[in-house]
Amino acid sequence: MKILVLGSAAGGGFPQWNCNCGNCAGLRRGTIAASARTQSSIALSENGQDWLLVNASPDILVQLRANPALQPARAVRDSGICAVLLMDAQIDHVTGLLMLRERTAPLPLYATAQVFGDLSDGLPLLRVLGAYCGVERHVLGEGAVTLAPLAETLLAVVALVSKAPPYSPHREAPRPGDNIGLVILNRTNGRRAFYAPGLGVPTDDVARVMGASDVLLVDGTFWSEDEMIVQGLSAKTAAMMGHLPQSGPGGMIELLDRMPAARKILIHINNSNPILREDAPQRALLARHGIEVAWDGMEIDL
Known about the structure:
Elements lengths: L1 E6 L14 H8 L11 E5 L5 E4 L5 H7 L14 E5 L5 H4 L12 E5 L1 H8 L4 H6 L4 E5 L13 E7 L20 E7 L5 E5 L7 H8 L3 E5 L7 H4 L21 H6 L5 E5 L13 H8 L2 E3 L5 E3 L1
Parallel strand pairs: 3-4, 4-5, 5-6, 9-10, 10-11, 11-12
Antiparallel strand pairs: 1-2, 1-13, 2-3, 7-8, 8-9
């Protein structure tokens, strides 16, 4: 069972189109040791041809070109993307759905009732897609399920404490289901991964799930709580944006240090985060803690 990282950056990608922070400007000028990244998304496959897309990034067309396995070309019109599962209704995770509108059959789409609500009202993507390929809605609830095209993989939803999208009427009063983590269990060998690109508060339930996982692919958005404020990019803290920073008491590094997983990987990395620089002291600190930084094209065997 393979997990393919299509995009590893947070919203806006890296470099972000309108950002001239040290990271973005340095990457454009070639003065820092770093690699460009598209907005976060992963894909899951058991046979290398048929894929479940998890989140549909605005960068989906670039990601498909970079990963020919998702275009097996078995017919004149074809795609390896058999279905899409959404972790939330954030713009950087859903607007790529519009690029899939020329399907020859309705798109199987899996999401919570809360996400379907936001995509029907606040950001009516489902209505737009209805005028093109159409959508087969499948509401995710409690309990493990098997979703085509994955026959030997169980998927289970874990409610996360984070934020609904800024356009959502529930932005400041998030509900269970606005953001989810995903347990991915390979039934053949019993190995499991936990994917959570938007993790604000590590509840006891989330910590238990993480502790039982062999691979963790979790929120790497910010290094510090005040990162955006210090760099003059925003007046909001990491917590206000629904993310747990890596550093500081109770941060992601401390959390991951308690976990026995063989692989601990950060994804959804904001353009402001110093860990994007391969020679940064923050990157070296992660390595000492056994924590990896995801990159576009990274493959994880589960």
